[in-house]
Amino acid sequence: MKTVTTLKELVYYADETYQNQPFIRELVHRKIQEKNFHEFRQDCDSLACWIQKQFPDTRTHLALIGSTGYAYLVTWLGIQCGNHVSVPLDVSNNAERIADEINRSDSEVVFLDDRHVADLEIFKKLCPKVKFYIHLHHAQENMLYLGDLIAEYAGQLPIDNPKAQDLAAILFTSGTTGQSKGVMLSHANLIDNTTCEPNQDFGKNIRLTVLPIHHIFCLTCDILCSLWFGRIVCVNDSLMRIVKNLKIFQPNVVSFVPMIAVSILNRMQQMAEKNPDKIAIGKEVYGENFDIIYTGGAYLSPEVIDGYREFGIEIAQGYGMTECSPRICTGIKNCPKPDSVGKIVPGCEVRIAEDGEVWVKSKSVMMGYYHNPEETVKTLTEDGWLKTGDLGHQEDGFLYLTGRKKNLIILSNGENVSPEELENQFAYFPPVKEIVVYEQEQQITAEVFPNQDYESDNIQAEIQAKIDSVNETFPPAKRIVKLVIRETEFPKTASKKIIRADIHKI
Questions:
Q1: Could you tell me the CATH number of the domain that includes residue 260?
Q2: Residue 194 resides in a domain
Q3: Could you tell me if 270 and 123 lie in one domain?
Q4: Of 349, 383, 404, which closes a domain?
Q5: 28-82 confidence digits (pLDDT tens)
Q6: DSSP 215
Q7: Based on CB atoms within 10 Å of each CB, which residue in 171, 345, 432, 443 is the most buried?
Q8: pLDDT of residue 484
Q9: Is 181 part of any domain?
Q10: How far apart are the first and last CA of the chain?
Q11: For the sheet containing 31-36, what is the strand order?
Protein backbone atom coordinates (compact mmCIF):
# COMPACT_ATOMS: atom_id res chain seq x y z
CA MET A 1 0.00 0.00 0.00
CA LYS A 2 1.11 3.55 -0.72
CA THR A 3 2.80 5.53 2.03
CA VAL A 4 0.81 8.48 3.36
CA THR A 5 2.07 10.94 5.96
CA THR A 6 -0.84 13.35 6.55
CA LEU A 7 -4.61 13.23 6.78
CA LYS A 8 -4.91 15.22 3.55
CA GLU A 9 -2.81 12.59 1.80
CA LEU A 10 -5.07 9.91 3.33
CA VAL A 11 -8.21 11.53 1.87
CA TYR A 12 -6.53 11.82 -1.54
CA TYR A 13 -5.19 8.25 -1.36
CA ALA A 14 -8.70 6.94 -0.66
CA ASP A 15 -10.05 8.83 -3.67
CA GLU A 16 -7.28 7.64 -5.99
CA THR A 17 -7.54 4.03 -4.82
CA TYR A 18 -11.25 3.46 -4.24
CA GLN A 19 -12.80 6.29 -6.30
CA ASN A 20 -16.51 5.54 -6.86
CA GLN A 21 -16.76 2.75 -4.31
CA PRO A 22 -19.22 3.54 -1.48
CA PHE A 23 -17.73 5.12 1.62
CA ILE A 24 -20.52 6.54 3.83
CA ARG A 25 -24.05 5.21 4.17
CA GLU A 26 -26.53 6.98 6.43
CA LEU A 27 -30.26 7.32 6.88
CA VAL A 28 -31.67 10.60 5.59
CA HIS A 29 -35.44 10.94 5.95
CA ARG A 30 -35.61 7.15 6.53
CA LYS A 31 -33.83 6.36 3.27
CA ILE A 32 -30.24 5.20 2.90
CA GLN A 33 -28.07 7.89 1.32
CA GLU A 34 -24.67 6.86 -0.02
CA LYS A 35 -21.54 8.87 -0.76
CA ASN A 36 -18.40 7.50 -2.39
CA PHE A 37 -14.73 8.22 -1.77
CA HIS A 38 -14.43 10.59 -4.73
CA GLU A 39 -17.41 12.70 -3.65
CA PHE A 40 -15.99 12.82 -0.15
CA ARG A 41 -12.62 14.15 -1.34
CA GLN A 42 -14.29 16.76 -3.55
CA ASP A 43 -16.44 18.07 -0.70
CA CYS A 44 -13.46 18.13 1.68
CA ASP A 45 -11.55 20.19 -0.89
CA SER A 46 -14.43 22.65 -1.29
CA LEU A 47 -14.63 23.33 2.43
CA ALA A 48 -10.84 23.57 2.64
CA CYS A 49 -10.89 26.30 -0.03
CA TRP A 50 -13.47 28.34 1.90
CA ILE A 51 -11.39 28.08 5.10
CA GLN A 52 -8.20 29.08 3.28
CA LYS A 53 -9.90 32.12 1.78
CA GLN A 54 -11.09 33.30 5.20
CA PHE A 55 -7.77 32.56 6.93
CA PRO A 56 -5.07 32.88 4.23
CA ASP A 57 -2.08 33.51 6.45
CA THR A 58 -2.61 31.38 9.57
CA ARG A 59 -3.30 27.80 10.60
CA THR A 60 -6.69 28.19 12.26
CA HIS A 61 -8.42 26.05 14.90
CA LEU A 62 -12.00 25.10 14.03
CA ALA A 63 -14.36 23.46 16.55
CA LEU A 64 -16.97 20.82 15.70
CA ILE A 65 -20.05 20.09 17.81
CA GLY A 66 -22.23 17.40 16.31
CA SER A 67 -23.00 13.75 15.73
CA THR A 68 -21.43 11.34 13.26
CA GLY A 69 -22.61 11.83 9.69
CA TYR A 70 -21.37 12.71 6.24
CA ALA A 71 -21.47 16.48 6.88
CA TYR A 72 -19.52 16.14 10.11
CA LEU A 73 -16.86 13.94 8.51
CA VAL A 74 -16.48 16.29 5.52
CA THR A 75 -15.93 19.09 8.02
CA TRP A 76 -13.41 17.17 10.15
CA LEU A 77 -11.28 16.15 7.19
CA GLY A 78 -11.98 19.24 5.08
CA ILE A 79 -10.25 21.18 7.84
CA GLN A 80 -7.25 18.87 7.38
CA CYS A 81 -7.26 19.29 3.59
CA GLY A 82 -7.08 23.03 4.19
CA ASN A 83 -4.03 22.62 6.47
CA HIS A 84 -5.85 23.71 9.62
CA VAL A 85 -6.66 22.15 13.02
CA SER A 86 -9.81 20.22 13.97
CA VAL A 87 -11.22 20.54 17.49
CA PRO A 88 -14.04 18.00 17.98
CA LEU A 89 -16.08 18.71 21.13
CA ASP A 90 -18.50 16.58 23.12
CA VAL A 91 -22.03 17.36 21.95
CA SER A 92 -23.45 16.15 25.29
CA ASN A 93 -21.72 18.92 27.28
CA ASN A 94 -23.62 22.03 28.31
CA ALA A 95 -23.11 25.35 26.54
CA GLU A 96 -20.83 26.80 29.21
CA ARG A 97 -18.42 23.86 29.13
CA ILE A 98 -18.38 23.83 25.34
CA ALA A 99 -17.67 27.56 25.33
CA ASP A 100 -14.81 27.04 27.77
CA GLU A 101 -13.21 24.43 25.47
CA ILE A 102 -13.77 26.61 22.41
CA ASN A 103 -11.83 29.35 24.16
CA ARG A 104 -9.08 27.15 25.58
CA SER A 105 -8.48 25.60 22.16
CA ASP A 106 -8.28 29.07 20.52
CA SER A 107 -10.96 28.09 18.01
CA GLU A 108 -12.11 30.81 15.62
CA VAL A 109 -14.83 28.89 13.77
CA VAL A 110 -17.57 26.69 15.22
CA PHE A 111 -19.57 24.08 13.28
CA LEU A 112 -22.69 22.81 15.04
CA ASP A 113 -25.98 21.01 14.51
CA ASP A 114 -29.52 21.46 15.82
CA ARG A 115 -28.71 20.26 19.32
CA HIS A 116 -26.84 23.45 20.18
CA VAL A 117 -28.51 26.04 17.91
CA ALA A 118 -30.38 27.36 20.93
CA ASP A 119 -27.01 28.03 22.60
CA LEU A 120 -25.78 30.32 19.85
CA GLU A 121 -26.24 33.52 21.86
CA ILE A 122 -24.39 31.99 24.82
CA PHE A 123 -21.50 31.06 22.54
CA LYS A 124 -21.39 34.54 21.03
CA LYS A 125 -21.31 36.10 24.48
CA LEU A 126 -18.68 33.77 25.95
CA CYS A 127 -16.47 33.24 22.87
CA PRO A 128 -15.42 36.64 21.50
CA LYS A 129 -12.67 35.18 19.28
CA VAL A 130 -15.06 33.13 17.14
CA LYS A 131 -15.58 34.71 13.73
CA PHE A 132 -18.00 32.25 12.08
CA TYR A 133 -20.74 29.88 13.21
CA ILE A 134 -21.72 27.29 10.61
CA HIS A 135 -24.64 24.85 10.68
CA LEU A 136 -23.75 21.37 9.50
CA HIS A 137 -27.12 20.35 8.02
CA HIS A 138 -29.30 23.23 6.85
CA ALA A 139 -29.66 26.97 6.49
CA GLN A 140 -30.18 28.74 9.81
CA GLU A 141 -30.74 32.37 10.73
CA ASN A 142 -27.60 34.20 11.92
CA MET A 143 -25.34 31.37 10.73
CA LEU A 144 -23.63 30.12 7.62
CA TYR A 145 -24.55 26.73 6.15
CA LEU A 146 -21.96 24.08 5.28
CA GLY A 147 -23.84 23.00 2.15
CA ASP A 148 -23.71 26.53 0.75
CA LEU A 149 -19.95 26.77 1.31
CA ILE A 150 -19.31 23.45 -0.41
CA ALA A 151 -21.50 24.44 -3.37
CA GLU A 152 -19.78 27.83 -3.74
CA TYR A 153 -16.29 26.33 -3.87
CA ALA A 154 -17.13 23.11 -5.74
CA GLY A 155 -14.37 21.95 -8.07
CA GLN A 156 -11.66 24.12 -6.52
CA LEU A 157 -8.47 22.69 -5.03
CA PRO A 158 -6.89 23.91 -1.79
CA ILE A 159 -3.32 25.13 -1.68
CA ASP A 160 -0.78 24.42 1.06
CA ASN A 161 -0.07 20.93 2.31
CA PRO A 162 0.30 20.01 5.96
CA LYS A 163 3.49 18.37 7.17
CA ALA A 164 3.57 15.10 9.07
CA GLN A 165 4.67 16.75 12.33
CA ASP A 166 2.07 19.55 12.16
CA LEU A 167 -0.71 19.69 14.73
CA ALA A 168 -3.83 18.10 13.23
CA ALA A 169 -6.33 18.01 16.08
CA ILE A 170 -6.99 18.94 19.69
CA LEU A 171 -9.22 16.46 21.54
CA PHE A 172 -10.35 17.10 25.07
CA THR A 173 -10.18 14.29 27.60
CA SER A 174 -13.12 14.33 29.98
CA GLY A 175 -11.00 13.52 33.02
CA THR A 176 -12.37 12.44 36.39
CA THR A 177 -10.43 15.10 38.28
CA GLY A 178 -9.95 18.76 37.47
CA GLN A 179 -10.30 20.54 34.16
CA SER A 180 -10.37 18.70 30.83
CA LYS A 181 -7.06 18.59 28.96
CA GLY A 182 -6.61 19.23 25.25
CA VAL A 183 -4.63 16.38 23.71
CA MET A 184 -2.57 17.55 20.72
CA LEU A 185 -2.32 14.94 17.97
CA SER A 186 -0.19 15.47 14.88
CA HIS A 187 -0.79 14.11 11.41
CA ALA A 188 2.02 11.63 12.07
CA ASN A 189 0.32 10.43 15.26
CA LEU A 190 -3.01 9.74 13.57
CA ILE A 191 -1.53 8.24 10.42
CA ASP A 192 0.68 5.88 12.42
CA ASN A 193 -2.28 4.60 14.42
CA THR A 194 -4.40 4.28 11.30
CA THR A 195 -1.84 2.30 9.32
CA CYS A 196 -0.11 0.28 12.05
CA GLU A 197 -1.89 -3.00 11.28
CA PRO A 198 -1.36 -5.07 8.12
CA ASN A 199 -4.37 -5.34 5.82
CA GLN A 200 -6.33 -8.55 6.43
CA ASP A 201 -8.97 -7.98 3.76
CA PHE A 202 -10.41 -5.17 5.89
CA GLY A 203 -11.64 -3.50 2.72
CA LYS A 204 -14.34 -6.15 2.45
CA ASN A 205 -15.84 -5.06 5.74
CA ILE A 206 -19.02 -3.08 6.21
CA ARG A 207 -18.65 -1.27 9.52
CA LEU A 208 -21.42 0.26 11.62
CA THR A 209 -20.12 3.30 13.49
CA VAL A 210 -21.88 3.74 16.83
CA LEU A 211 -19.60 5.56 19.27
CA PRO A 212 -19.52 9.38 19.64
CA ILE A 213 -17.39 10.90 16.88
CA HIS A 214 -15.53 13.26 19.22
CA HIS A 215 -13.93 10.12 20.72
CA ILE A 216 -10.64 9.20 19.07
CA PHE A 217 -11.59 5.48 19.19
CA CYS A 218 -14.43 6.15 16.77
CA LEU A 219 -12.48 8.56 14.56
CA THR A 220 -9.41 6.37 14.07
CA CYS A 221 -10.87 2.87 14.04
CA ASP A 222 -14.14 3.58 12.23
CA ILE A 223 -13.36 6.51 9.93
CA LEU A 224 -9.63 6.88 9.27
CA CYS A 225 -9.05 3.14 8.98
CA SER A 226 -11.96 2.93 6.55
CA LEU A 227 -10.35 5.57 4.35
CA TRP A 228 -7.12 3.55 4.48
CA PHE A 229 -8.64 0.13 3.79
CA GLY A 230 -11.53 1.20 1.54
CA ARG A 231 -14.31 0.08 3.87
CA ILE A 232 -17.95 1.09 3.88
CA VAL A 233 -18.98 3.02 7.01
CA CYS A 234 -22.64 2.94 8.01
CA VAL A 235 -23.83 5.61 10.42
CA ASN A 236 -25.88 4.59 13.44
CA ASP A 237 -28.13 7.57 14.08
CA SER A 238 -29.19 6.74 17.65
CA LEU A 239 -28.14 4.47 20.50
CA MET A 240 -31.82 3.58 20.83
CA ARG A 241 -31.84 2.19 17.26
CA ILE A 242 -28.66 0.09 17.20
CA VAL A 243 -30.48 -3.22 16.80
CA LYS A 244 -32.76 -1.73 14.14
CA ASN A 245 -29.79 -0.31 12.24
CA LEU A 246 -27.93 -3.62 12.43
CA LYS A 247 -30.81 -5.07 10.41
CA ILE A 248 -30.96 -2.13 7.99
CA PHE A 249 -27.24 -1.89 7.17
CA GLN A 250 -26.19 -5.55 7.68
CA PRO A 251 -22.61 -4.76 8.79
CA ASN A 252 -20.09 -7.45 9.59
CA VAL A 253 -18.02 -5.38 12.02
CA VAL A 254 -18.93 -2.94 14.79
CA SER A 255 -17.10 -1.16 17.61
CA PHE A 256 -18.86 -0.89 20.97
CA VAL A 257 -18.06 0.06 24.52
CA PRO A 258 -18.76 -2.96 26.76
CA MET A 259 -21.93 -1.36 28.17
CA ILE A 260 -23.60 -1.47 24.74
CA ALA A 261 -22.41 -5.02 24.10
CA VAL A 262 -23.80 -6.19 27.44
CA SER A 263 -27.14 -4.48 26.83
CA ILE A 264 -27.63 -6.30 23.52
CA LEU A 265 -26.43 -9.59 25.02
CA ASN A 266 -29.04 -9.26 27.75
CA ARG A 267 -31.68 -8.70 25.09
CA MET A 268 -30.62 -11.82 23.20
CA GLN A 269 -30.68 -13.88 26.38
CA GLN A 270 -34.24 -12.75 27.01
CA MET A 271 -35.11 -13.87 23.48
CA ALA A 272 -33.49 -17.23 24.22
CA GLU A 273 -35.99 -17.85 27.02
CA LYS A 274 -38.59 -18.35 24.28
CA ASN A 275 -36.34 -19.70 21.53
CA PRO A 276 -33.52 -22.12 22.50
CA ASP A 277 -31.75 -21.73 19.13
CA LYS A 278 -29.16 -19.15 20.19
CA ILE A 279 -27.26 -19.23 16.91
CA ALA A 280 -30.45 -18.25 15.07
CA ILE A 281 -31.03 -15.43 17.56
CA GLY A 282 -27.47 -14.14 17.01
CA LYS A 283 -28.07 -14.03 13.25
CA GLU A 284 -31.47 -12.41 13.72
CA VAL A 285 -30.02 -9.57 15.82
CA TYR A 286 -26.63 -9.03 14.16
CA GLY A 287 -27.29 -10.34 10.65
CA GLU A 288 -26.29 -13.35 8.60
CA ASN A 289 -22.88 -11.96 7.60
CA PHE A 290 -21.76 -10.56 10.95
CA ASP A 291 -18.14 -11.26 11.87
CA ILE A 292 -16.88 -9.58 15.05
CA ILE A 293 -17.49 -6.91 17.71
CA TYR A 294 -14.50 -4.85 18.86
CA THR A 295 -14.73 -3.15 22.25
CA GLY A 296 -12.70 -0.57 24.11
CA GLY A 297 -13.01 2.15 26.70
CA ALA A 298 -13.77 -0.12 29.66
CA TYR A 299 -13.25 -3.63 30.99
CA LEU A 300 -14.82 -6.48 29.04
CA SER A 301 -15.70 -9.40 31.26
CA PRO A 302 -14.74 -12.90 30.00
CA GLU A 303 -18.34 -13.83 30.89
CA VAL A 304 -19.52 -11.47 28.14
CA ILE A 305 -17.11 -13.08 25.67
CA ASP A 306 -18.46 -16.52 26.62
CA GLY A 307 -22.04 -15.25 26.47
CA TYR A 308 -21.64 -13.98 22.92
CA ARG A 309 -19.92 -17.17 21.85
CA GLU A 310 -23.11 -19.08 22.73
CA PHE A 311 -24.89 -16.95 20.10
CA GLY A 312 -22.21 -17.61 17.49
CA ILE A 313 -20.71 -14.12 17.72
CA GLU A 314 -17.13 -13.20 18.49
CA ILE A 315 -16.26 -10.20 20.62
CA ALA A 316 -12.72 -8.96 21.30
CA GLN A 317 -11.41 -6.11 23.40
CA GLY A 318 -8.66 -3.66 22.69
CA TYR A 319 -7.02 -0.91 24.73
CA GLY A 320 -5.90 2.62 24.12
CA MET A 321 -6.16 6.23 25.17
CA THR A 322 -6.62 9.56 23.47
CA GLU A 323 -2.99 10.41 24.17
CA CYS A 324 -1.94 7.49 21.92
CA SER A 325 -4.30 8.20 18.99
CA PRO A 326 -5.70 5.81 20.58
CA ARG A 327 -4.67 2.19 19.92
CA ILE A 328 -2.10 0.55 22.17
CA CYS A 329 -3.59 -2.94 21.89
CA THR A 330 -6.07 -4.30 19.41
CA GLY A 331 -8.67 -7.01 19.76
CA ILE A 332 -8.04 -10.04 17.58
CA LYS A 333 -10.20 -12.87 16.34
CA ASN A 334 -9.91 -16.16 18.21
CA CYS A 335 -7.87 -14.40 20.90
CA PRO A 336 -5.85 -16.98 22.84
CA LYS A 337 -5.77 -14.74 25.91
CA PRO A 338 -9.33 -13.41 26.43
CA ASP A 339 -8.51 -12.02 29.87
CA SER A 340 -5.99 -9.63 28.28
CA VAL A 341 -6.88 -6.25 26.76
CA GLY A 342 -5.62 -7.37 23.39
CA LYS A 343 -2.43 -7.73 21.38
CA ILE A 344 0.04 -4.84 21.41
CA VAL A 345 -0.14 -3.16 17.99
CA PRO A 346 2.90 -3.20 15.68
CA GLY A 347 5.31 -0.36 16.29
CA CYS A 348 4.22 0.20 19.89
CA GLU A 349 6.65 -0.51 22.72
CA VAL A 350 5.31 -1.28 26.20
CA ARG A 351 7.33 -0.99 29.39
CA ILE A 352 6.18 -1.81 32.92
CA ALA A 353 7.64 0.68 35.39
CA GLU A 354 8.91 -0.33 38.83
CA ASP A 355 5.59 0.62 40.43
CA GLY A 356 3.64 -1.47 37.90
CA GLU A 357 2.50 1.43 35.72
CA VAL A 358 2.18 0.77 31.98
CA TRP A 359 4.35 3.05 29.85
CA VAL A 360 4.12 3.10 26.05
CA LYS A 361 6.20 4.58 23.25
CA SER A 362 5.24 4.81 19.58
CA LYS A 363 4.80 7.27 16.73
CA SER A 364 1.17 7.52 17.84
CA VAL A 365 2.01 9.20 21.17
CA MET A 366 0.69 12.76 21.42
CA MET A 367 2.62 15.98 21.07
CA GLY A 368 1.46 17.06 24.54
CA TYR A 369 -1.45 18.90 26.16
CA TYR A 370 -2.44 22.22 24.56
CA HIS A 371 -1.27 25.20 26.65
CA ASN A 372 -0.65 22.85 29.57
CA PRO A 373 3.08 22.16 29.95
CA GLU A 374 2.71 21.15 33.61
CA GLU A 375 0.44 18.19 32.80
CA THR A 376 2.52 17.35 29.73
CA VAL A 377 5.65 16.95 31.85
CA LYS A 378 3.75 14.70 34.25
CA THR A 379 2.57 12.44 31.43
CA LEU A 380 5.45 12.34 28.93
CA THR A 381 9.03 11.45 29.86
CA GLU A 382 11.94 13.31 28.27
CA ASP A 383 12.73 10.29 26.12
CA GLY A 384 9.17 9.95 24.79
CA TRP A 385 7.42 7.42 27.01
CA LEU A 386 3.73 7.99 27.72
CA LYS A 387 2.73 7.22 31.30
CA THR A 388 -0.72 5.69 30.92
CA GLY A 389 -1.71 5.77 34.59
CA ASP A 390 -2.80 2.12 34.27
CA LEU A 391 -1.30 -0.77 36.19
CA GLY A 392 -0.61 -4.05 34.48
CA HIS A 393 1.79 -6.55 32.97
CA GLN A 394 2.57 -7.96 29.55
CA GLU A 395 2.99 -11.52 28.36
CA ASP A 396 3.73 -12.88 24.86
CA GLY A 397 2.76 -9.61 23.18
CA PHE A 398 -0.51 -9.26 25.08
CA LEU A 399 -1.24 -6.68 27.77
CA TYR A 400 -3.11 -7.26 31.03
CA LEU A 401 -4.48 -4.43 33.17
CA THR A 402 -5.22 -4.57 36.89
CA GLY A 403 -6.35 -1.02 37.65
CA ARG A 404 -5.54 2.68 37.74
CA LYS A 405 -2.44 3.90 39.58
CA LYS A 406 -4.26 6.89 41.09
CA ASN A 407 -6.98 4.62 42.51
CA LEU A 408 -4.61 2.18 44.20
CA ILE A 409 -5.55 1.48 47.81
CA ILE A 410 -2.57 1.25 50.18
CA LEU A 411 -3.51 -0.34 53.51
CA SER A 412 -1.70 0.23 56.80
CA ASN A 413 -0.21 -3.27 56.59
CA GLY A 414 1.55 -2.29 53.37
CA GLU A 415 -0.75 -4.24 51.06
CA ASN A 416 -1.65 -2.63 47.74
CA VAL A 417 -5.18 -3.25 46.48
CA SER A 418 -6.40 -2.34 43.01
CA PRO A 419 -10.13 -1.51 43.31
CA GLU A 420 -10.73 -2.22 39.61
CA GLU A 421 -9.45 -5.77 40.04
CA LEU A 422 -12.29 -6.36 42.49
CA GLU A 423 -14.88 -4.27 40.63
CA ASN A 424 -14.31 -6.24 37.44
CA GLN A 425 -15.58 -9.39 39.15
CA PHE A 426 -19.06 -7.81 39.11
CA ALA A 427 -18.92 -6.57 35.50
CA TYR A 428 -21.56 -9.01 34.32
CA PHE A 429 -23.49 -9.64 37.51
CA PRO A 430 -27.14 -8.68 36.77
CA PRO A 431 -28.10 -7.33 40.25
CA VAL A 432 -25.28 -4.74 40.12
CA LYS A 433 -25.51 -1.74 37.82
CA GLU A 434 -22.54 0.20 39.23
CA ILE A 435 -19.90 -0.62 41.83
CA VAL A 436 -16.98 1.28 43.34
CA VAL A 437 -14.49 -0.27 45.75
CA TYR A 438 -12.57 1.96 48.16
CA GLU A 439 -10.90 1.99 51.55
CA GLN A 440 -12.82 3.24 54.57
CA GLU A 441 -11.36 2.99 58.06
CA GLN A 442 -8.79 0.50 56.78
CA GLN A 443 -11.54 -1.76 55.44
CA ILE A 444 -12.12 -2.64 51.79
CA THR A 445 -15.63 -1.34 51.08
CA ALA A 446 -17.85 -1.99 48.06
CA GLU A 447 -20.47 0.64 47.34
CA VAL A 448 -23.14 -0.55 44.94
CA PHE A 449 -25.96 1.02 42.97
CA PRO A 450 -28.25 -1.93 42.23
CA ASN A 451 -29.83 -2.63 38.86
CA GLN A 452 -33.29 -1.08 39.16
CA ASP A 453 -34.69 -3.40 36.49
CA TYR A 454 -33.53 -6.57 38.23
CA GLU A 455 -36.31 -8.43 40.00
CA SER A 456 -35.34 -9.89 43.38
CA ASP A 457 -36.89 -10.65 46.74
CA ASN A 458 -33.67 -9.55 48.46
CA ILE A 459 -31.19 -7.94 46.10
CA GLN A 460 -28.80 -6.96 48.90
CA ALA A 461 -28.53 -10.59 49.99
CA GLU A 462 -27.77 -11.64 46.40
CA ILE A 463 -25.05 -9.03 46.12
CA GLN A 464 -23.56 -10.06 49.44
CA ALA A 465 -23.54 -13.70 48.36
CA LYS A 466 -21.64 -12.70 45.22
CA ILE A 467 -19.15 -10.73 47.34
CA ASP A 468 -18.60 -13.78 49.53
CA SER A 469 -17.97 -15.87 46.42
CA VAL A 470 -15.53 -13.32 44.97
CA ASN A 471 -13.69 -13.04 48.29
CA GLU A 472 -12.86 -16.74 48.18
CA THR A 473 -10.73 -16.12 45.07
CA PHE A 474 -8.63 -13.35 46.67
CA PRO A 475 -6.14 -13.35 49.58
CA PRO A 476 -7.48 -11.99 52.91
CA ALA A 477 -5.91 -8.52 52.44
CA LYS A 478 -7.83 -7.97 49.18
CA ARG A 479 -11.25 -9.14 50.32
CA ILE A 480 -14.30 -6.90 50.51
CA VAL A 481 -15.29 -6.44 54.14
CA LYS A 482 -18.20 -4.02 53.93
CA LEU A 483 -21.12 -3.54 51.52
CA VAL A 484 -22.86 -0.18 51.10
CA ILE A 485 -26.05 0.06 49.00
CA ARG A 486 -26.71 3.48 47.50
CA GLU A 487 -30.00 4.86 46.17
CA THR A 488 -28.65 6.98 43.29
CA GLU A 489 -26.18 6.49 40.46
CA PHE A 490 -22.59 7.53 41.00
CA PRO A 491 -21.52 11.00 39.76
CA LYS A 492 -19.98 10.76 36.29
CA THR A 493 -18.08 12.70 33.67
CA ALA A 494 -19.64 13.58 30.32
CA SER A 495 -18.21 10.31 28.94
CA LYS A 496 -19.94 8.36 31.75
CA LYS A 497 -16.83 7.57 33.78
CA ILE A 498 -17.46 7.49 37.53
CA ILE A 499 -15.85 10.38 39.42
CA ARG A 500 -14.48 8.60 42.48
CA ALA A 501 -13.52 11.81 44.26
CA ASP A 502 -17.15 12.97 44.22
CA ILE A 503 -18.77 9.76 45.52
CA HIS A 504 -19.42 11.11 49.01
CA LYS A 505 -20.35 14.64 47.90
CA ILE A 506 -23.94 13.86 46.89
A1: 3.40.50.12780
A2: no
A3: no
A4: 404
A5: 988 999 999 999 999 999 999 999 999 998 999 999 999 999 999 999 999 999 9
A6: S
A7: 171
A8: 96
A9: no
A10: 54
A11: 31-36, 22-28, 232-235, 206-209, 253-256, 292-295, 314-317
Distance from C-alpha of 62 to C-alpha of 107, rounded to nearest angstrom: 5
Give the three-class secondary structure for 402: strand
Sequence-ordered alpha helix ranges (H) in 55-184: 70-81, 95-104, 120-126, 146-152
CA–CA separation, 35 and 21 (whole Å): 9
pTM, whole model, 2 decimals? 0.92
For 159, other C-beta atoms within 10 Å of its C-beta total: 11
User: Is 387 strand, coil or helix?
Assistant: strand
Q: From 371, 404, 437, give the residue that closes a domain.
A: 404
Evaluate whether residue 98 is within a structural domain.
yes
Domain limits for position 384: 202-223+236-404
Residue ranges of alpha helices (H) inside 2-134 are 7-18, 37-54, 70-81, 95-104, 120-126
CA distance 471 to 478: 8
CB 99 within 8 A of CB 122: yes
> For position 495, what pLDDT does the model report?
65
Same domain, 11 and 155: yes
Average pLDDT over all residues of the chain: 94
Task: List residues bridging with 292 in a β-sheet.
Answer: 253, 314
The number of distinct structural domains making up the chain is: 3
Per residue in 85-102, pLDDT tens?
999 999 999 999 999 999
* Residue 2 belongs to a domain: no
What are the percentages of helix, strand and coil residues in the chain, rounded to 5?
35, 25, 35
pLDDT tens digits along 403-440? 999 999 988 777 889 999 999 999 989 999 999 999 99
Does residue 419 share a domain with residue 338? Answer: no
Number of C-beta neighbours around residue 277 at 10 A:
12
Q: Are residues 35 and 103 in the same domain?
A: yes
